[in-house]
Amino acid sequence: MMGLTPRQSELLEFIRSTWEKSGRAPLIHEMMDHQDTRSINSIQRRLRALEARGLIEWAGRGWGWRIPE
C-alpha cells in the first residue's frame, strides 16, 4: 500500500486476515508475535500510523481495532 512502511503493511494484512478468519481483531500480543517483536510501543506506533491514514479504527474497549467499511 502506498505510503506505508513494510512493517505497517504487514501488520495491516495480519489484522485483515485475523478478522476474516476469526471475526475479531488480533490482540496486541498476537501482533507482537506475528511481527517478532517484544516492543508494545512499536506495535502501537504502527497502529496509530494506520489509524491516521484511515485504514483501521479503534472500535472501543472489548472490540479492538477494525477495518472501516
Determine Rg (CA atoms, Å).
11 Å
- Unreliable runs: none
Biggest sheet, strands in spatial order?
Answer: 1-2
Overall body shape:
globular
Protein architecture, described:
The protein is mainly alpha-helical. The protein has a domain at 10-55. 54% of the residues lie in helices and 6% in strands. It contains three helices and two strands; from the N terminus they run H-H-H-E-E. It has helices at 6-22, 28-34, 40-52; strands spanning 57-58, 65-66. The model has no long low-confidence stretch (mean pLDDT 91).
Quick take:
The protein is mostly helical.
List the helices and strands and how they pair.
Elements: H1 6-22, H2 28-34, H3 40-52, E1 57-58, E2 65-66
Antiparallel strand pairs: 1-2
